[in-house]
Write a structure and sequence with these properties.
This protein is α+β, with helices and mostly antiparallel strands. It is built from eleven helices and 35 strands.
Amino acid sequence: MMEGLSKKQMKKWKSILLKLLADGLQAGTEPSKTLAVGNGGIHNGVCPTKLLEVLNAYGEIEKFSVIPKKSYVIITYTSVESAESIFKNVQGTDIEKSDGGPNATLYFYYLNTEINPDSQQKAIHLKPQGLHIYEDFITEKEERLLINTIEQDLMKQSKQCAQSVLKHRQVLHYGYKFQYGTNDVDLNDPMAKEDIPEHVSGVIEKVMETELWEGKPDQCTVNKYEPGHGIPFHVDNPDAFTTSISSLSLGSSIVFEMRHPIGNVFTLLLKPRSLLTLTGEARYTWTHGIKPKKTDIVHDSAANSEAIIHRGVRWSLTLRKVKDKTSKTESGPPMVDTQDAVEIERRHVHGVYNKIASHFASTREKPWPKVVEFLHSLSPHSLVLDIGCGSGRYLRTEDTNHFIFGCDRSSSLIDICQEKHPFVFVSDGLNVPMKNDYFDACICIAVIHHYFTAERRLSAIKEIVRLLRKGGKALIQVWAAEQVYKNKHSAYLNKQSVNTNPLVENLQTLKVDCTGDQEQKVCSLPIHKNRNHFAQQDMFVPWKLKNSPTQAPTNTHYRFYHVFKEGELEQLCRSIDNCTLEKSYYDNGNWAAIITKDL
């Protein structure tokens, strides 16, 4: 009965079978009245009505169950003969998707257990603390008037607003112009001297009535989303904006998704005219974003079924209050200038690696497979620069046939490299002494998360782009705040910490005078507990020297890290004019991006 499947289809059939078995279903090839239809679920974009047209042609259906958040459905015929007929004749055939995507291939599996659809929904979706939703926050008439006024602003130049055209959406700014890349605003922007227009200030006044804001919002960003557009997962910069973020949705419904660093996911349907406000954990710990799709799948709990909704044009008004730059943030490092950032990096990045170089090098000998894969993907005999080469584990990767240079800020690590590779030199990653447009490729692995500010992290990527020839590629990899992704925990976490979310207030802190002999400015950050989830993005991570006494504090050194949340590295790369983000992915506790310098 499986003879009609190609080798590729048979592989897919077995792959889906394993998923069904993992869900506790006794699936196989022994005939029964009940079948699972793989790839036939609404979560895979297949319309139940279309699927039933196919299924009804082979016999009378006794029961049809759509399983929430699964890509398969369960069907029971009144006879085994009907089930056998569709198993044999429709196995491996295609069905059109309602979302306009590529056709889905249907695979059939006999089931020999009674199915309770409710038992398939195992995931626990807890509402993030600090998430507030107000449906019908404004009237339909107010919505139409607001959309019309925003559209007029998009078509004209005004001192009261600034326009931006991003790759996937049109943007307006009121009060202050939002700066993509640094996720900040320019306090000297002349726009700030202009009054926010009445149609926006009216929304602000109404938002203040919710009593979720400590101060009045003074910055508004309007995004216009066409169907299929989204926004990467992110946290609004805690160093730039205060404790509340509000967003008013207009025009079309959309599924809004939030993700916690330990792997929890929460989704909700943002309806037109609804107001969403993020405070507390929802504001600082959970990332939020919108997937770029033309349709959304919505679960109807009353009917225990799912439905596909098609996206229309949507506008969102995001309200923020710009933070006083002279104050310190409770959720990250203090606002410091470039000189202070350089001093902290000198003490808690460069200085530490010089002290631990030998021990560090002994633990960093095995290349990461994805980095090796990138090097193998390059044209033979490429000229490559490894920025932040450390102990040099990628300088002599086998079978690449490339000519690889390496540079690192740590002179002690470069001394170790020179013992096995001659083409290495000491250099700051922000100012590499090589000419423009020189290298075919660059790799920068586990480096950019050591820069103290968003501006310096962005500058590091710009320096990589400067060094690349036109058409050249770079692989950038950074430590991820999410050490659990898609329900799989990274190798970094120990088993005891997988389901534990550490609180900042329970951690020790380290205070650093970041200005030396000048006027004192203290940076105070928590000390990360190794092999655990990260309590926040900016932390000191301890390194204990090998064979050192357990209680000897001088043998423990603290490195500064800014761990990246999902979408953050992508956003930095996209903010650079002369490069294109080709690919981004999660790799065992790290975020990675491959960029190409534009021709």
